[in-house]
Amino acid sequence: MPVVPNIPELMHRTLFRTVSLLAPSRQGEILGRYFDWWHRSPDPWRLSTDSYEREKYAATLADLPARPYRDIVEVGCAEGVFTQALAETFPEAEITGLDISGRALARARARVREERVRFVRANILTHRADRRFDLAFCAETLYYLGREERLRRASDRLGDLLAPGGVLVAVHPWPEAGRLHRYLDARAGLTRLSERVHRNPQRPFTVAVYRA
Length: 212
Ligand SMILES: C[S@@+](CC[C@H](N)C(=O)[O-])C[C@H]1O[C@@H](n2cnc3c(N)ncnc32)[C@H](O)[C@@H]1O
Prior knowledge:
It contains 8 helices and 7 strands. By secondary structure, it is α/β, with parallel strands linked by helices. The chain has a single domain (7-211), classed as Vaccinia Virus protein VP39 (Rossmann fold). The longest helix has 15 residues, at 24-38. The structure holds S-adenosylmethionine. S-adenosylmethionine is lined by residues 28, 31, 35, 45, 47, 76-78, 81-82, 98-101, 104, 123-125, 139-141, 144.
């Protein structure tokens, strides 16, 4: 079947690629403003109501190696919809949600009001965590980071979040996930445990699981 170019998606990727020509901290300021604007109304991606998103969350959790997880981080947590699912799935765990949008995080804090769940404003390109996690997620976020050097940098930061033996799960649209996850695949100290393509007819996606 011929590959039909998706024009809005192409424009979207070009816009974020252009922003990624700036220094990482400046890029982060612009992304922060952009995503604050994007969150001008609640739940702009309909993460809390869309059945596709629920299917994706279930598929993400289903691929986790079974073991107790105590310290979990979600990078690009937006308004905390998946964070809430994590809090329900892992009632004993400490959970951290990271996002670049203060407005999204304010809604996340209102959504998940548990002491063991905290939300931190951070740019994954520059963030240095003060702790290591045994489980990390990054879903539907890497395509905002633009050019290859930024994907490599973000992949390094994601790897740095993990404690020895920690698990990282990356979830992005297929087939673009091949490009977005390339630097996770190549990162020294990360081993890919599985990669599953979910062939949803409209929006196929990949769940890739790594271990430090
Ligand atoms: C589509 S949402 C992800 C939703 C969530 N991961 C899920 O699957 O439910 C993408 C999020 O990435 C955040 N983001 C974009 N660039 C970021 C960066 N450099 N550092 C941290 N968060 C970023 C945005 O603010 C936005 O909330």
